[in-house]
Amino acid sequence: MDLVVIKELLGHAHIGVTAGVYAPVRLRLQRQAIDTLNGALDPVNDNPDDPPAAAGVR
Fold first, then answer.
1. What digits encode the pLDDT tens for the residues 5-49?
2. Which three-class secondary structure state does DSSP give residue 46?
3. Distance CA 1, CA 3 (A)
4. Which of 3, 17, 28, 32 could form a disulfide with 12 if both were Cys (CB 3.0 to 4.6 A apart)?
């Protein structure tokens, strides 16, 4: 969620207060999401000659 929206909802007078409290949490959540995606997208099998472990159908 945008920090400006959080600022308004919480009634903070200055965005710096909101950013100081919530920006580190937001960055941590982004890092966790990136790590989760990396884990999901990393190939389990590094040998390109082997067939994929799973296939998706569209």
1. 989 999 999 999 988 888 788 888 888 988 888 888 876 655 666
2. coil
3. 6
4. 17
User: At 54, which amino acid appears?
Assistant: A
Distance between CA atoms of residues 39 and 14, nearest Å: 38
Cα separation, 36 vs 27, in Å, equals 14
Asked if residue 42 lies in contact with residue 53, where contact means CB atoms within 8 angstroms, the answer is no
DSSP string, 2-43: -HHHHHHHHT-SSHHHHHHHHHHHHHHHHHHHHHHHHHHHS-
